[in-house]
């Protein structure tokens, strides 16, 4: 046995803008971010600034016209600067996202339903 653990498939976002709050002790101001992809175990964001590894954050997906207001507490696992100066940030949630919530994100066009997981 090689100890390999398959990770959950990542599903591409439709480019929706989300809010990120740093906590505790971080900025109380919401930071606008692009949701790049989401899996049952975490998500990837594109931000105008870096976040610290192991920092606790809360991502909010809110769309009043669709009745959505979802919070996703997570821990920053990695952060890489892109050539254009934005930052890609990988976050891991403390629990596995249930299939009902994942389905709701597809139905509300937060996640792309093109059948191609993001990798």
Percent in strands: over 45%
* Radius of gyration, whole Å: 14 Å
The residue ranges in which pLDDT falls below 50 over 5 or more consecutive positions are none
Largest sheet: 6 strands, antiparallel, barrel
Q: Averaged pLDDT, please?
A: 87
Order of helices and strands: EEEEEEEHE
Briefly, what CATH class?
Answer: Mainly Beta
By DSSP (H or I, 4+ residues per run), the number of helices equals 1
How many strands appear in the DSSP assignment? 8
Distance between the termini: 25 Å
CATH architecture: Beta Barrel
CATH superfamily: predicted glycosyltransferase like domains
Strand order of the largest sheet: 2-3-4-7-6-5
Helix content: under 10%
Question: What are the salient characteristics of this protein?
Answer:
119 residues; mainly beta; Thrombin, subunit H; 6-stranded antiparallel barrel; 8% helix
Mind explaining what this structure looks like?
With 119 residues, the protein is mainly beta. It has one domain: Beta Barrel (Thrombin, subunit H). A six-stranded antiparallel beta barrel has the order 2-3-4-7-6-5. The radius of gyration is 14 Å and the shape is globular. The model has no long low-confidence stretch (mean pLDDT 87).
Question: Can I get a quick summary?
Answer:
The protein has 119 residues and is mainly beta. It has one helix spanning 99-107; strands spanning 10-12, 17-23, 31-38, 42-47, 56-63, 68-81, 87-93, 117-118. The protein contains one helix and eight strands; from the N terminus they run E-E-E-E-E-E-E-H-E.
């Amino acid at each position: 046995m090689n100890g390999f653990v398959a990770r959950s498939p990542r599903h591409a976002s439709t480019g929706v803008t989300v809010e990120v709050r740093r906590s505790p002790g971080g900025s109380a101001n919401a930071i606008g971010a692009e949701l790049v992809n989401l899996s049952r175990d975490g998500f990837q964001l594109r931000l105008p600034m870096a976040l610290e590894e192991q920092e606790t954050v809360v991502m909010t997906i809110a769309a009043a016209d669709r009745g959505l207001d979802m919070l996703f507490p997570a821990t920053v696992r990695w952060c890489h600067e892109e050539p254009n100066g934005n930052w890609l940030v990988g976050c891991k949630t403390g629990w596995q996202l249930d299939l009902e919530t994942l389905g709701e994100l597809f139905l509300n066009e937060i996640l792309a339903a093109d059948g191609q997981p993001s990798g």
